[in-house]
Design brief:
alpha/beta, two-stranded antiparallel sheet, 14 helices, 13 strands
């Protein structure tokens, strides 16, 4: 193994930060040290403006190891920027972006080999100009705001994480574990990452293209008509479903149905039906030994080729590879 001494990982700490964003990565990197008898060389430090305790969004107080000024004096291997959010009167989520913290992120990034964000930490990277001209992800709930605030960033709300050159962005809070495993695989190889994943009782990794969405997480419509149509699709997913079929069921024209789906769900009827079928197929692959032919039939794809194309289009993987990664072992 090549010399890996001195892999300094700095996690940015600030008031209101999401707790798991801060505590998840150190757990993963500590297991990498254990699995390699410390040869991984990771040193994880929490850095803040001062050494005073920081209160996280969960109310747990955390002590920084060093100040930003201390860590900015040397070289940093990996900078991890977590996020924080607040809610308005309508319970809408809003990422917190402190200008002084953004300035420190700029300073630290200039000393860093690899820059990463977790969840809404992407908003801090974007404010620092570190995502300009890059494709990036963040938590699905704040992705529209990231795109609106930073049109120079190509926001993709679907993947678990995205790597663009030396900048990595992760999605929802628990994705900090997937991202950490991916960083370990990048540093030390898949074999070490697999051993760490086993200790965490996790899959080795969800592929970077693995969607952070599932059908139940999609936006809930505001009209009873669309909700009724959604349930109709679920009940009849194995049957041939066309725009005309749904329009007839809803007693509207094809064109009006398409407008309803676009307005209420931000998608087309065809794309929504496919998303429901992919979701059902994912469940079948995870929980059963059914053949691909059987899954294609019960999920409404008709043929295995159609099933495979839908998986490649939506999940950037194949049904066989998905089952290999995510099959849930059955109890004896």
């Amino acid at each position: 193994m090549a010399d890996t001494a001195g892999r300094l990982i700095v996690i940015v700490l600030f008031e209101g930060v999401d707790l798991l964003d801060v505590t998840g990565p150190p757990e993963v990197f500590s297991l990498a040290l254990r699995e390699t008898d410390a040869a991984a060389g990771y040193e994880v430090v929490l850095a803040a403006r001062t050494l005073d305790p920081v209160t996280t969004g969960a109310g747990v107080r955390v002590l920084p190891d060093r100040t930003f000024a201390d860590v900015a004096a040397g070289a940093i291997d990996t900078l991890i920027v977590p996020g924080a959010v607040e809610f308005d009167e309508q319970r809408r989520v809003r990422p917190l972006v402190d200008p002084e913290l953004v300035d420190w992120v700029k300073v630290l990034a200039a000393r860093t080999h690899r820059i990463t964000s977790v969840c809404v930490g992407a908003h801090l990277l974007a404010a620092a100009g570190l995502l300009d001209g890059k494709r990036a992800t963040t938590h699905w709930s704040t992705a529209p705001q990231l795109a609106a605030d930073h049109p120079e960033v190509t926001v993709d709300a679907d993947p678990i994480f995205i790597r663009e050159d030396n900048v990595w962005t992760g999605a929802g809070i628990s994705a900090c574990l997937d991202l950490s495993l991916a960083l370990i695989a990048d540093d030390l190889g898949e074999a070490v990452a697999l051993r760490v994943a086993r200790q965490l009782v996790m899959y080795l990794k969800r592929p970077s293209g693995q969607s952070q969405f599932s059908v139940p997480l999609e936006q809930v419509s505001t009209t009873r008509r669309i909700e009724d149509l959604r349930h109709h699709v679920l009940r009849h997913v194995a049957e041939p479903l066309t725009v005309s079929d749904l329009a007839a069921y809803a007693h509207v024209s094809d064109r009006h149905l398409t407008r309803l789906f676009k307005t209420e769900l931000g998608t087309t009827p065809h794309a929504y039906i496919e998303s429901v079928r992919v979701e059902k197929a994912r469940h079948e692959l995870e929980s059963s030994d059914a053949t691909l032919e059987r899954i294609a039939a019960v999920c409404g794809f008709g043929t295995v080729d159609t099933l495979v194309r839908a998986f490649r289009r939506r999940l950037s993987t194949t049904p066989t590879e998905y089952r290999r990664r995510f099959r849930v072992p059955q109890a004896p």
